[in-house]
Amino acid sequence: MQSAVATSPFRQPRAVWAVAFACVISFMGIGLVDPILPALATDLHASPSQVSLLFTSYLVVTAVAMLVVGAVASRIGPKRTLVVGLSIIVVFAALAGTSGTVGQIVGFRAGWGLGNALFIATSLAVIVASASGGFAGAIILYETALGLGIAVGPLLGGELGSISWRGPFYGVAVLMALAMVATIVFVPALPKPEKPTSITAPLKALRHRGLLTMGIMALLYNWGFFTMLGYAPYPMELDAHKLGLVFTAWGLLVAAFSVFFAPRLQARFGTAKVLYANLLALAVVMVVIAAGVSTPATVIAAVIVSGAFIGINNTLTTQAVMLVAPVERSVASSAYGFVRFIGGGLAPFVAGKLADRFDLSVPFYLGGVAFLLAIVVLSTGHKLVTAAEQDESPLQPVGALTPADARPVVVAVGAAPDAPEIVAAAAAIARASGSPLEVVRVRETVVIEELAIEPEDEQDARAAVEGHLRRLADHGIAATGLLLTSVGDHAAAGRALARHAEDVQARTVAVGRSPRGPAVQFADGSFTSALTHSTTRTVVLVTPDETPHPLTAATLHELRGV
């Protein structure tokens, strides 16, 4: 679907590296603090419930800020939003390091949450806009930053925390200051959207049943998740260094299962079924922690294992939201982020009260109940998710429709420089077979953890298709156009095109060679492989000035770069 030259996702401008570095530090976030929770309680003479407010203040402010960050970014621009967010994080992280009481840290963590909301709302969009070689490389770079941040955060927090609990706060301040300077110097000013986002749009979006249902499910999921994250360090009875190692192992599983395994499970079993099983598994993990709260080894093992389920859930919950949301992706992300972070913020506070009044096992039992309630809520929206998933990639006509029973040659192209040449090569196949040509422009909604982004604007995609149709008409070739919008990884888009090819009984489906190397395609799925394995139609690889190459399971193995 792309050009013939494979490009490395790590060959990027300095602007991309500046923001990617900041992403790593941002994703360290909560994991950086987790190893020092017991030390904070001891050194500042505070109870676990008081220390847990570090999560509550941070997440509640992040939640409320999610309602307005889209409106702010659309008015002052992505770069300014990034710089403001980074500067706020630097200031409040440093102030947290100077604190003398838990109350002060809680207050400064609230400011940190505001800065983080501004940063995460725009970082992925800036990386995509600044990346070279298309958005595929940008996405894999962002996912790499996510994985590094989640895995390295607890490790760095444990190492710095073994020196002093102030270390992780000062460490974030210094690293984010470096990222802020690099962002100011290397990231160019990026254009603002033509139409500013309404400040009330996220709240209005919650009127839609599907979005609200998935949001409540995410709230309950986050309740259980942050109960575990906020209280599991205490019964482990480890020092900061060893806690860092435990949560590093946990973070590695979160990152790996979020990026590599979640899309494949979704493709095989469906979003809802995987979420049901995953939430049930998390409930079991919480019961194990609660029952074994007096046995550190049990708690340690259960927390590490939970990383796999959390990684899957983070990705598929966001994907479920995007499937059912009838509003713009950015608005849906803001509305969903608001609801889910509220759950994450309130859970540690309530858990602390329960632990103080009863014992440390009660918050974990309640967290298990929250996961089970999330299953109940998801079941009320099951039909919405299933229906949206079955039609997860609606095709929108651009101009006239292909006549029924025409058996067209279908060519799939994306926002690649050689798209006109790929269309021209497919047109030659259509002319030779006496078939009409159908040009399908593929637009993919990329889901990473709680973020979703559409790298190509619908208006731009529609204009590109119209350009292809004009050029074909000038050469006397009958052609129609479609936009295919997919939610998920590249493989999801390939399966969607395969369904369409079956529906129209396509004579041939033509694609170009992907510029994404084998490692990138393994991470976010291969469009061409999924298409070839999911359709009975003839699929060919077209390259300008070369003979079309038929694709089968065997030839795909030979063409490692496809």
Keywords:
562 residues; alpha/beta; eight-stranded mixed beta sheet; disordered N terminus
Strand-helix topology:
Layout: H1 14-33, H2 37-43, H3 48-51, H4 53-66, H5 69-76, H6 78-97, H7 102-130, H8 135-163, H9 167-186, H10 201-205, H11 209-231, H12 233-236, H13 240-269, H14 271-291, H15 296-324, H16 329-357, H17 361-380, H18 382-390, E1 395-398, E2 409-413, H19 419-433, E3 437-448, E4 451-453, H20 458-474, E5 479-487, H21 490-503, E6 508-511, H22 518-524, H23 527-534, E7 538-541, E8 549-550, H24 553-558
Parallel strand pairs: 2-3, 2-6, 3-5, 6-7
Antiparallel strand pairs: 1-5, 3-4, 7-8
Helix pairs in contact: 1-7, 1-8, 1-9, 4-7, 4-16, 5-6, 6-7, 6-9, 7-8, 8-13, 11-15, 11-16, 11-17, 13-14, 13-15, 14-15, 14-17, 15-18, 16-17, 21-23
Could you explain how this protein is built, in words?
The protein has helices spanning 14-33, 37-43, 48-51, 53-66, 69-76, 78-97, 102-130, 135-163, 167-186, 201-205, 209-231, 233-236, 240-269, 271-291, 296-324, 329-357, 361-380, 382-390, 419-433, 458-474, 490-503, 518-524, 527-534, 553-558; strands spanning 395-398, 409-413, 437-448, 451-453, 479-487, 508-511, 538-541, 549-550. It is α/β, with parallel strands linked by helices. Strands 1, 2, 3, 4, 5, 6, 7 and 8 form an eight-stranded mixed sheet that branches. Helix 5 packs across helix 6 and helix 6 (78-97) packs antiparallel against helix 9 (167-186). The longest helix has 30 residues, at 240-269.
Question: Care to give the gist of this entry?
Answer:
The protein is an alpha/beta fold and 562 residues long.
